[in-house]
């Protein structure tokens, strides 16, 4: 699955509580950031713009031109990792912007100038980019709900070591499953009948069976999933329990 800027499959995108689309790691981080922001400023942290499809990038480029709009296919909005924030963050000298520059950074968000490798400047103060490897949010248990939701994806990325969906490699899903395959190959090495998985990022039946085999090994008897190669709610629940027990 080749993933291109502005052409992310919908399976990679999560709708935030503010209505915009982002990749799972950025969306999870945004929700935490929004909670802290609301506590501090008594208002929501609004997103003016999140994921931008290639078609929208073309439209914006036609309307605004460079540098107000990036060249189509080059905006990190097209990777689902960038947000244009409102709520005061969009003003370079505001308290909200300063907050973003300290607290936002702890959640892995860096300003545009830094993402471009430039010196500090006031160009597009609203534009921030999420970098999972810089996100220092502590481990939290996820709810065992059988859904591969934002929190679970994030916990999984954490457990697998970071970065998984860093920078321009917005092929988040693919990278995630590759990391899972590598982890399972390590965990199950030497197990009778186990053939090392091809690390291709595809969550096929062999990968799911290996995952289920590993989960059966770390979970108590009554919580063990069936080894059927199907990535359904029961397997996700088992995965969530293993993550919560720090056994993945
Ligand atoms: Zn932007």
Could you outline the blueprint of secondary structure elements for this entry?
Layout: E1 13-15, E2 21-23, H1 24-41, E3 47-49, H2 54-64, E4 82-85, H3 95-106, E5 107-111, H4 112-115, E6 127-135, H5 150-160, H6 172-187, H7 205-218, H8 233-244
Antiparallel strand pairs: 1-2, 3-4, 4-6, 5-6
Helix pairs in contact: 1-5, 6-7, 7-8
The structure holds zinc ion.
Write out key terms for the chains shown.
248 residues, alpha+beta, Muramoyl-pentapeptide Carboxypeptidase, domain 2, 2 domains, four-stranded antiparallel beta sheet, two-stranded antiparallel sheet, 6 strands, 11% strand, binds zinc ion, D-alanyl-D-alanine carboxypeptidase-like core domain-containing protein, VanY-like_core_dom, PGBDSf, Zn_M74/Hedgehog-like
Shape: elongated
Helical/strand content category: alpha+beta
What is the CATH topology descriptor of the largest domain? Muramoyl-pentapeptide Carboxypeptidase, domain 2
Ligand roster: zinc ion
Number of strands: 6
Mean pLDDT: 89
CATH class of the largest domain: Alpha Beta
The assigned CATH architecture of the largest domain is 2-Layer Sandwich
**SSE sequence, one letter per element:** EEHEHEHEHEHHHH
CA-atom Rg in angstroms: 20 Å
Query: How many domains in all?
Result: 2
**Low-pLDDT ranges:** 163-169
Strand content: 5-15%
For the largest sheet, list the strands in their spatial order: 3-4-6-5
């Amino acid at each position: 699955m080749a993933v291109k800027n502005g052409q992310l499959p919908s399976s990679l995108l999560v709708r935030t509580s503010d209505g915009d689309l982002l990749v799972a790691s950025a969306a999870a981080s945004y929700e935490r950031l929004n909670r802290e922001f609301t506590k501090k400023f008594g208002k929501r942290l609004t997103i003016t713009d999140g994921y931008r499809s290639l078609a929208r990038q073309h439209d914006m480029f036609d309307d605004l031109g460079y540098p107000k709009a990036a060249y189509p296919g080059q905006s990190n909005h097209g990777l689902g990792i960038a947000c244009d924030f409102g709520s005061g963050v969009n003003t370079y000298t505001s308290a909200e912007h300063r907050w973003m520059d300290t607290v936002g950074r702890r959640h892995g968000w860096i300003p545009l100038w830094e993402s471009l490798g430039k010196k500090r400047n006031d160009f597009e103060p609203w534009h921030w980019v999420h970098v999972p490897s810089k996100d220092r949010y502590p481990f939290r248990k996820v709810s065992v709900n059988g859904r591969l939701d934002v929190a679970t994806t994030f916990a999984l990325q954490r457990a697998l070591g970071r970065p998984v969906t860093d920078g321009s490699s917005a092929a988040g899903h693919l990278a995630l499953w590759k990391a899972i395959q590598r982890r399972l190959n390590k965990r199950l090495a030497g197990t009778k009948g186990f053939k090392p998985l091809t690390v291709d990022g595809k969550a096929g039946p062999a990968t799911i069976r290996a995952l289920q085999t590993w989960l059966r090994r770390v979970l108590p008897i009554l919580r063990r999933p069936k080894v059927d190669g199907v990535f359904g709610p029961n397997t996700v629940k088992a995965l969530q329990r293993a993550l919560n027990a720090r056994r993945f």
